[in-house]
Structure formats: C-alpha cells, structure tokens
Design goal:
This protein has helices spanning 3-28, 33-40, 44-56, 119-137, 176-184, 193-204, 255-260, 262-267, 269-278, 287-295, 299-323, 332-335, 342-352, 369-390; strands at 60-65, 75-79, 85-91, 95-102, 107-114, 144-151, 154-156, 161-163, 188-192, 213-218, 222-228, 231-233, 327-331, 359-362. By secondary structure, the protein is of the alpha/beta class. A five-stranded mixed β-sheet has the order 5-4-3-6-9, with helices on both faces. Strands 12-11-10-13-14 form a five-stranded mixed β-sheet, sandwiched between helices. Strand 3 (85-91) and strand 4 (95-102) form a beta hairpin.
C-alpha cells in the first residue's frame, strides 16, 4: 500500500469514527468519554480525538460535569443545537404548516395558515412562511441544512415532479419542484404526507417501539403509511400505501374518480359528505357535520358512517392480509374523530377475516403528525450534512 493509500485509509477510518461518536452523542447526551467508549467499542484515545475534532467543527460542546460519583467528575458532552437547522413543511388542501427545529430536534418556531388556491400562490405562501419563521427566530437561511416537504402524491425522482396529487390542484405541475428548490434551497426532500405521518408516529407517537404498524390517514385524501420491520416501506416506486386506488364499489366511477382513486372518492372527507347527502342529510357541508350528526344518532348520518366503515373495512382487509401489522393508527382531519368507531372497525374485520386483528388507536399527534415526521426525517439528513460540511475536502 502506498503512502497516499495509507493516508486515504486513515482519513476514511477517522471520519467513520467521528460519525459513530457524533450519532452516539445525540442518542446519549449528556454523555462522557467513558460511556461513549462502552457504547461504541472504540478506544478511549479514539473517542477523545473524535470529540475534540467534533468540538472544533462546532458540532458538539461541553455541557458540564457528572456529579454524585466518587473520584474526579467526568466531563459531559452534548450536541451543539445551533450547528444546523431543519424545516418541515406540511402542504394540504386546506392548511399549510411550517416547523423550524435545531439539530437536537428542539422546535424553535412554527406557523400554520389556510392554504392559498393555485400552485403558484401556494409556493409563494410556503416561501413567505419559511422566510418569516427564519427572520422571527433570527436563523440565517444558510444554517438550514435540510428542508422536508410533505404533501399528497408521490415524488417522481426521475421526473423531478410530484404525481398522483389530484386533490391538490396544480401540485403535479412539472415546474413546481424546481420552483420550490429555487425558493427554499437545493437541500430539500419531497415526501408523501401520509408516509411522513407514519414516521411522526414512529418517532413521537403511538408507533414508538412498534416494529410493524400502519398509519391510516382519512382527510381530504386517503392513504396508508406502513412501517415494517422498524422502517418505512415505500415500495419500488414510492407508491406503497396508495390505497386510494383500491377498486371498491363507489357511487362515482368516471374518469375523474379513477384518476383520483375509487376508494378515496368514496371514503375521503368529501365522499363522506356526499354519502350523507344521498341518505338525506342535505344540510351537511363538511365531514365534521356528518360525524356530529352521527354522534347525535341522526339516521342519515348513521347510514353514511356505515358506508364509510364498509369502505375502510375493504381497504384494511387488504392491508391486514398483506402486511399483518400489530397496530393501526388513525389520523387526518376525519380519522382523528374515529374514536367511537375503532371497535366497530375491528368487529367488521374479525367477521371478514380468520386472521389476528391488530390493535386500533387514534393518533395523539393530531395536525402535527406530518410535520413531526418531516422533522424526524430531516434531522437524519441534516446531521449527516453537518458532518459533511465540517469535514475538510
């Protein structure tokens, strides 16, 4: 091996060690050299050198001394929160949410507003909300290491555009992704909003410690995010969980319904309202009206909810047989009101399938599920980029 190859190998090994120590500092903070040695299997000199370099890069910092034990109190280390920032964005038909957090995941600011109509107006609105959030927290735009945008649809990596977002008008435009990159920076990721909600549940909600679960979103759209073996399952083309396209028997089956998805057409918020009106509840203008009327045992609303449960049972039966999850979490603008329908759903599934039926629960994250999933995803990328940016070329 030549001297150049030896040097390259030594540099690579040092960087691997620094990454290992850096990740452990986030997991264990506040932590000591001794604890890091025990957790990483690296030698004490190697851990000490890695910490010194990470501190020099501005990525970790001394956070005090561990007291209470005999002998010399060990120095404690923790991540330097302001070493980088993450922006998470949740784009929906009715609302846009933006969240800003430091490299430890501590939220520094957030904003939520009614969505503007039209893709161009929506892009400008998102850019303005991010700018205002950064200005209000005095965070420099160049300090943002990752931006994660969650929205309906599936990001097409090859075509650099979002597809299958029919319930968000204009969001599939081919110029939308480049325009957002120009406005928010090159280090931006586009994710399906329901997939991010599943990641939010895994990191901060009912999915913590659960290896196999699904998040069922019922709102202006309908979809499933699946965590299998502790990891988000995307599928070969990122379309795993697009249950909106399941071929259910729906009142509307024309070209528009097929493009949107028959199940979503029947069971999303507007489908629930349409069902209630067909049954005679002509005063219903939004899904919340139907849910409230069903709670009051209004016959038309009760029948509409029975139709809704039939559609969801069809979707969940397919999910149960294919994925065998141990937990189903319901969320979204409609799904979060389904507390009274968890038992009927499980009963319908039990009558339909001779298989173990998973536990059902309503998400406790509410409107924040997608934002928190964006945060969890963005933190991983931001921390890696912080290391890359600090390392000399």
């Amino acid at each position: 091996m030549t001297a150049s190859e030896v040097a390259t190998s030594a540099t690579f090994l040092r960087q691997v060690n620094e990454r290992t120590v850096f990740r452990r500092v986030f997991e264990l903070a506040p932590t000591s050299v001794t604890q890091l040695v025990n957790e990483t299997g690296l030698s004490k000199p190697t851990v000490g050198l890695a910490l010194a370099r990470l501190e020099q890069f501005g990525l970790v910092q001394k956070v005090g001394l561990r007291t209470g034990a005999a002998g010399r109190a060990p120095q404690l280390f923790g991540p330097r929160p302001e070493a980088g920032w993450v922006v998470a964005i949740d784009v929906g038909l009715r609302w846009v949410g933006v969240l800003l957090a430091d490299l430890t995941g501590t939220v520094a600011g957030r904003s939520r507003r009614r969505s503007k109509r039209g893709a161009r107006a929506l892009v400008d609105q998102i850019g303005d909300m991010v700018d205002e959030l950064l200005a209000g927290t005095e965070v420099a735009p160049e300090s943002v290491l990752n931006v994660v945008v969650g929205s309906p649809g599936v990001y097409d990596e090859a075509g650099h555009r979002v597809r299958h977002a029919s319930n968000l008008p204009g969001w599939e435009r081919p110029d939308l992704v480049p325009t957002l990159r120009d406005r928010l920076g090159a280090h931006i990721a586009f994710e399906n909003d329901v997939d991010l909600a599943a990641l939010g549940e895994q990191a901060y909600g009912l999915g913590r410690g659960v290896e196999n679960f699904v998040y069922l979103h019922i709102g202006s759209g309908l979809g499933i995010g699946a965590v299998l073996g502790g990891k988000l399952h995307r599928g070969a083309h990122g379309t795993a969980g697009e249950v909106a396209f399941l071929p259910v028997a729906a009142p509307e089956s024309g070209r528009a319904a097929l493009r949107r998805g028959l199940l979503e057409t029947a069971a999303a918020a507007d489908g629930l309202v349409a069902a209630a009106r067909r049954h005679g509840l002509t005063t219903a203008s939004k899904a919340e009206d139907v849910l409230a009327a069903a709670k009051a045992e209004e016959p038309a609303a009760v029948r509409a909810m029975a139709d809704e449960l039939d559609h969801l049972t069809t979707a969940l039966a397919a999910v149960m047989t294919l994925l065998d999850p141990e937990l189903v979490v319901l969320g979204g603008g409609v799904g979060r009101h389904f507390g009274d329908y968890l038992v009927p759903l499980r009963q319908r599934l039990a009558a339909l399938l001779p298989l173990p039926i998973p536990a059902f629960a309503v998400s406790a994250l509410g409107d924040d599920a997608t934002l928190l999933g964006g945060l969890a995803s963005g933190l991983r990328n931001a921390r890696e980029r912080a290391l890359q940016r600090a390392e000399p070329v």
